[in-house]
Amino acid sequence: MKKILRAKLLVAAALSTVILAGCGDSGGRDSFAYFSESTNGSSGSSSYKSDAAAYTNSSPASYDSDGYYADEAASNDYAAKGDEESNSLAADSIQKEMLVYSCYMDVDTLDFDTSLNSFKNTLDLYGGFVETENFNDGGGGGRWYYENEEKWQSYSATVRIPSSNYDAFCNSAGSLGDLRSKTSTVENLSQEYSDLSTSLEIYEAKEQRYIALLADITEDEYAVEIERELTNIQIQIASIKTRMNRISTDVAYSYVYFTLNEVKEYVSAPVKTDTFFDRLSNTLSNAGRGFLEFLEGLLFFLIYTVPYFVLIGIVVFVIVKIVKKCRAKKREKVLLEKQAKQASEKSEEKASDTADNASPAAEQKLADTENKDVSEGGSEENKS
Fold first, then answer.
1. Which of 105, 217, 255, 349 is 20 to 30 A (C-alpha) from 89?
2. Residue 271 Ramachandran class (φ > 0 left, ψ -120 to 50 alpha, else beta)
3. Which of 38-47, 248-257, 261-270 has the least mean pLDDT?
């Protein structure tokens, strides 16, 4: 069974090669028709297998005898000539059709609102539409509103214009104000569109071939493989068609990137030469104004700092009181110590004076005592 399936795939590969070489030409269609007839004409799996077996067992000579290869070579030569002629003709026709125009414009205006309304009216007039747009009033980004804030408005948009009205619209949009810059580009997608068309034909032919194979296969394993390949082919076809539609839309509707900026007319002030008295008056006025501003600032500074000065004064007053009290206690202590010292010195002097006065009497008393002892000793001796 695997050999039979391999033979079928070989047949499919050979025929797809013929179709790729022919690119839709009559020889390729005949080969594809031959393949379709050989696959659709089989009834049941037995006939399908017998056809595949006959293809694998046949020799090249048998095909030469039938004239198959000769017809194939002739069809390939005819297809090559047809491709050359079709490419030469398509180069003149498609290159002029598959062009995508783009324009970048910057316009400055003194009357922003009027110019913006004119731009939108012009867009409607020429059948265009806006893809993206952005408006900015030019104000600050904060949460506060300032009545006299200076603003510079701006507007930017990406619009699509029918290609037939592209030049007229660009000229009208450029005349809405002062055209500061304009850049135009043209992208030629003819070759890409042609390649996509050829690829689409090939994938569609492969899709029909796989659908025919899927209709004749009875085994689930091979049917799943064919379905997987068929799904991939259909995805490729959808992707190609999406890109082709995108190219067709870009060709039909050109791109215009438009930016509108608000500007204001500059008015220069006249130059004035001041006289000596003007300068003197201005100097005195500035000096007086500066002095008043200084006094005003000093007053506000004092008002602002008075609470702090009061607090600092209270703290300093408490500290001074504490220091004075400590010093008074220290002086009192020193004075008491000094008085105590003086008192002790006076008591010592008095005691010394008393001792000096009492010493002669003590000496006399001591001498009397000694004399008495001596007299008593003599009397005792006489008695003895």
1. 255
2. beta
3. 38-47
